[in-house]
Write the structure tokens for this entry.
Amino acid sequence: MASGAMDSSASSGMSSGMSGSFNVNNFATTLYSAGWMPTTPAGYAGSWLFLFFLAMLWRGLTVTLSKLDAYWARKHEAYSILVDGGKERVDRKKAVEVWRTSVNLPRAVLATVNQGIAYLLMIAVMTMNVGFFFAVLVGYFVGELSFQRLHAR
């Protein structure tokens, strides 16, 4: 009797809806909501392309944030004012970066959008659908090829 109770408790442990292996034979994978479940090859291809371009967008936003940070650092570099012994002087070596609405607000908005996209991609990969996984990977790869050269400059 004790083994029967253990069998039923062990089998209910994996009833959370997530499997431990990738799904390769099923187009009908729910993506983000119950209404977004591709059931045809065309629907699956559309979902695949959406994830591909979303991963590219995520990579592009990451590079854009990095470029904007470098731009803002150069732009506001000369405005660092150090007070030393009662004398104010402009110095290129900043001790503390000054908080600016014109810099920090757009940076926060872009970083939040970028992180939201990253979470959407994570949810897509967590469906354990091989096609969705490769859509995200290939999108990241193409985004890296497209945008990384801009980051190097």
Remarks:
- The radius of gyration is 24 Å.
- The beta strands are 81-84, 87-90.
- Residues 41-75 form the longest helix (35 residues).
- DSSP finds four helices and two strands in the chain.
